[in-house]
């Protein structure tokens, strides 16, 4: 491609973009924002997306995936069948047509693909089957401010597998795990596959693939001694806690005027936050549940949801808190509640023998509280977020926390959707059974941005060869110089004849502008035709390392493939 007439509108600065990938993709002319969380992909951006898609297709096809394409516009009744129309939440984009029929713009396609399978597959002889698509998805994100990392419209690969038995699902799950590992390795990413929660999609077995990056919104727990890794929502906290004695001083009230937070109370009473108990009232499927954790720990609502096998978990509103406890948040405690509710306590509470808790009375706390004497706990269970320094649940080593960007997610759905939507098949004995399902997603556009988060420097993007928009950036320093222009034109045609993708900077611009743009665009190998062109000499430069050499024009045919093979090495 010749750069003079290419749509590559580079910018020196951008406005309010926060993430480095957002800044660089805007500055380098790969994307342009149309509205909050909605982007145009300009020609360079589309070339990168195409290459990500191709890698995904190759790995999906390798494990027997069959590509199809489903509509983005889905009738609401499919989602009503599955139960997700009401439970998915405000991220679901809902609309009506002119006949007032309800539709949604698909954020994912479990319902649609299940509808296909229940109509087309009715025998075990047609199972297993894996179907996938690469398609635009829609989610009405509350704060779409991270560029392609969190958009309202985005490109995704979603795959769905269908099975007659669990062993078949397990085998496909392992195939997908391997395929995802291959995909993200080929994309040049530093990633981890971590144990995760299934969220609104459902299912029990699941892994997230996380690109490690300081720009990540999620924390990943990684063991320093073994290969254990888990999303912080799912990381198990292990520890031995001796049940505290119920003997001791009777509890007493103490005034804590204006001290509502854990740290404020701890400072006021001159105690460590670990001696306090944080009492939080949750609504779990519309029923109030009081959850207790140590003051220096954070409640993990996913663990509450999973322990109680709940659908919806969230903090209770102020009116509910007052009805159950008689007070406002900040002074809630487990002693003398106004309504009897289930009390769940984190396992670390078992090790506290002299607690400080809210008194269910404004500006008041209780000292010397004992579980088992002053209140009863229904269940002790792991309910908190893992922290750095905690023990690895697998080997006992030390846990560290790193940030990550979710780029892929694989689930064992079981029969969640097939039961709800009556997707049945006849087994070998002619007995009707529900199809067993798995689903597997990759954020294509998110992967593109995640690569930039991991592959950039102070001058711009540094694309891995596998998805770079072009392999070679050919720059004629001075297009007005006949020797340079002729040498560059000859090189351009020669490299193209070798099937090497070339962006030829044939613009009548200053050399400094061309070099700055080249750094910004991040194409792996640069060939600069300058003042020594008439002597048959050009410069080659590796974008990743900055290493450069002067070489003979006659050597280019052999050197470019060699440099491309090494372009990703640091």
Automatic annotation (TrEMBL):
Coiled coil: none annotated. Residues 37-464 form the Aminoacyl-transfer RNA synthetases class-II family profile domain. It is an enzyme of class 6 (ligase). The keyword Signal does not apply. The keyword Metal-binding does not apply. It comes from the Bacteria. PROSITE patterns: AA_TRNA_LIGASE_II. Its EC number is 6.1.1.15. InterPro entries: aa-tRNA-synt_IIb, aa-tRNA-synth_II, aa-tRNA-synth_II/BPL/LPL, Anticodon-bd, Anticodon-bd_dom_sf, Pro-tRNA-ligase_IIa, Pro-tRNA-synth_IIa_bac-type, Pro-tRNA-Synthase_IIa_type1. It is found in: Cytoplasm. CDD domains: ProRS-INS, ProRS_anticodon_short, ProRS_core_prok. GO terms for molecular function: aminoacyl-tRNA deacylase activity; ATP binding; catalytic activity, acting on a protein; proline-tRNA ligase activity; transferase activity. It catalyses: tRNA(Pro) + L-proline + ATP = L-prolyl-tRNA(Pro) + AMP + diphosphate. Keywords: Aminoacyl-tRNA synthetase, ATP-binding, Cytoplasm, Ligase, Nucleotide-binding, Protein biosynthesis. GO terms for cellular component: cytosol. One of its GO terms (biological process) is prolyl-tRNA aminoacylation. Catalyzes the attachment of proline to tRNA(Pro) in a two-step reaction: proline is first activated by ATP to form Pro-AMP and then transferred to the acceptor end of tRNA(Pro). As ProRS can inadvertently accommodate and process non-cognate amino acids such as alanine and cysteine, to avoid such errors it has two additional distinct editing activities against alanine. One activity is designated as 'pretransfer' editing and involves the tRNA(Pro)-independent hydrolysis of activated Ala-AMP. Belongs to the class-II aminoacyl-tRNA synthetase family. ProS type 1 subfamily. Consists of three domains: the N-terminal catalytic domain, the editing domain and the C-terminal anticodon-binding domain. Homodimer. This is Proline--tRNA ligase. It comes from Baia soyae.
